[in-house]
Amino acid sequence: MFRTPLCRVVSWLSLTCALCGGLAGISQAAEDPPVRGATDNSLTKGAIEAGWIKLFDGETLFGWKSNKDDVNWEITRGVVHADKGGIGLLVTTVEFADYEVLCDFRLSKGGNSGIFLRTLFNPQEVQTDCYELNMCDSHPAFPTGSLVGLAKPERPVSGEEEWMTYHVVCQGNRIDVKLDGQPILSYTDTRPQARARGFIGLQKNAGKAEYKNIFLRPLSAQPLFNGKDLTGWRKVPGGKSEFAVAEGAIHVTNGRGFLETEATWGDFILQSQIKTNGKHLNSGIFFRALPGTEQEPSNGYEAQVQNAYDKNDRTKPSDFGTGAIYRRVKARRVVSNDFEWFTMTVAATGPQISVWVEGEQVTDWMDPRPPHENPREGRRTKPGHFSLQGHDPTTDLLFRNLRVSAFP
């Protein structure tokens, strides 16, 4: 058996050039910015701008849900861990489709657990309900580094009781795995039942399983804005806002008014960089919206842009706060600042809506309302438009690098 190197690779393989497919991103690894910040469970500014988000904040289980009540998931010094109860998963509340994910893990001697990819909330059959990336040196058939029931590494790997890092790329029907920076497995699922989307799950099986530094970047994104003109967008009639292209960004001034996409999306991950050129300005990105008219210009869900907060406390957002779903749920914290570029990520899968600002998850909300064609009146999961809001005469904002990953 060989021992994988324990040094942490900070300039991670991008593979988002895997927008082209396969392992073509290997030659571009040196161009990727470092992902990890100076402390555990943090990201660099370059990684955030490249689309990385934190799935685990190091302090709470916000954005996660256990599928078995008897498993003792706890957090200690930035590590989420479990060692008691039955076999269970800690599962993200939102699904993902194409992505790359980093996760540090440590397993007690003789233990058995795994990281579940594209999984159902309660998987029953490992070969059809999920992809289980195993953590079990002693497993007789599918040891550490294997996709249980499907494929195993060319060479055995080990590392019980030591921190190790999985770096996984799931794109289309292909899964590529690195362990501590070393490629160990590439698997292409040609079966009709190949899974295209699902949750990410951390397993507690036998022994103690520990996890930290869980970061994800969506893949297969398509640009919503070409950086040159407003091709693919239309101004909603009757508005007062002005929409212009300046230095590769959409510049929104004056208001009220809306600029909406011609195309529509249902389940998606949207990412955009945003800058407010004034103090406490109000705007938003609307999604799953009905076509805007002069009479009804903005019938959609709104991911709020409002960087103000009360009493010098970022946990008390004013007017719901940046990353909130306006009128529905407040952001748990205002992360972004006026006069500075920040990155917003909006994930909508079915009734579940999650938002990250600067890589920090600020919203985790499942729409409990009865279905309705108009998102202002009830739950809408049908495709709809994206639109950028000009809120009022003080509006002065920039949007750039708008991109969307659609779900199969």
- Major β-sheet profile: 8 strands, antiparallel
Average of pLDDT: 92
Order of helices and strands: EHEEEEEEEEEEEEEEEEEEEEEEEEEEE
Beta-strand proportion: 35-45%
* Intertermini distance: 39 Å
- The CATH architecture name of the largest domain reads Sandwich
Structural class: mainly beta
The fold-level CATH name of the largest domain is Jelly Rolls
Q: Which geometry do the CA atoms define?
A: elongated
What does this structure look like?
The protein folds into two domains: 217 residues, Exo-inulinase, domain 1 (Jelly Rolls); 183 residues, Sandwich (Jelly Rolls). Helix content is 1%, strand content 39%. The protein has one helix and 28 strands. Strand 12 and strand 13 form a beta hairpin. The chain is elongated. The N terminus is likely disordered.
Quick recap of the structure?
The protein is mainly beta. Helix content is 1%, strand content 39%.
Which characteristics define this entry?
8-stranded antiparallel sheet, single chain, Jelly Rolls, mainly beta, 2 domains, 39% strand, 408 residues, 1 helix
How are the elements arranged and paired?
Blueprint: E1 2-3, H1 45-49, E2 53-54, E3 64-66, E4 74-76, E5 79-82, E6 88-92, E7 99-107, E8 113-119, E9 131-135, E10 157-158, E11 164-171, E12 174-179, E13 182-188, E14 199-204, E15 209-218, E16 222-223, E17 233-235, E18 242-246, E19 249-253, E20 257-261, E21 268-276, E22 283-289, E23 301-305, E24 342-349, E25 352-357, E26 360-366, E27 385-390, E28 396-406
Parallel strand pairs: 1-10
Antiparallel strand pairs: 2-15, 3-6, 4-5, 5-15, 6-14, 7-11, 7-15, 8-9, 8-14, 11-12, 12-13, 16-28, 17-20, 18-19, 19-28, 20-27, 21-24, 21-28, 22-23, 22-27, 24-25, 25-26
